[in-house]
């Protein structure tokens, strides 16, 4: 899918009113929640010549993801290729009443993650970060879903080193492994990062999901975790599991 500026490849149409000229919302719908959450949008600036200004406050092009984070671009940006961290973006071009330039041609396509998957009907299995035991790749987004029979729980046990680098091991904002003990990240999640191997984790229900995210810098050797399906009545703590500290 290619998207061009107004009158490309001629000069941009000057916007005398100073309002938005173009707006495109792109949302990925694949019919499966796991596939949708692991899908991302790849944006390529095939041609990009927009008036350069401080903080792109005159003419520019911005991309907004679902979290509200705004990335603004101006000046010569041709050839840039980057992967968004979301499957839902809004793109907007804006101009002022002064200098014109050639504009842009942008290609947008769906990027489906090569990692992740669904485990259903298996009593045990192994989940690893991409390229384990070697360093994981940058810009990774992997989601694994484990489903056990009714009245059963899922136990995770980390069997190897744990090496997920993040600028802050307390908040785990950059690279992290997130675990949902109910299989729903919107209501139940905890992030893990750093180099301390987490203790065993037991699900609250018969569903559990893991999400591995890395930023644009390759770092860390990742993780390896084994899952086992266990009876809900074998939880010796009398609860639905525990979090590692």
TrEMBL record:
Annotated SUPFAM superfamilies: Spermadhesin, CUB domain (SSF49854)
Any single Pfam family the record assigns to this protein: CUB
Disulfide bonds: 115-142
UniProt xrefs under SMART domains: CUB
Keywords recorded for this protein, A-Z: Disulfide bond, Receptor, Repeat
Annotated signal peptide: none
Residues covered by the CUB domain: 115-230
Keyword Isomerase: no
CDD domains named in the record: CUB (cd00041)
Record protein name field: Putative cubilin intrinsic factor-cobalamin receptor
Native species: Ixodes ricinus
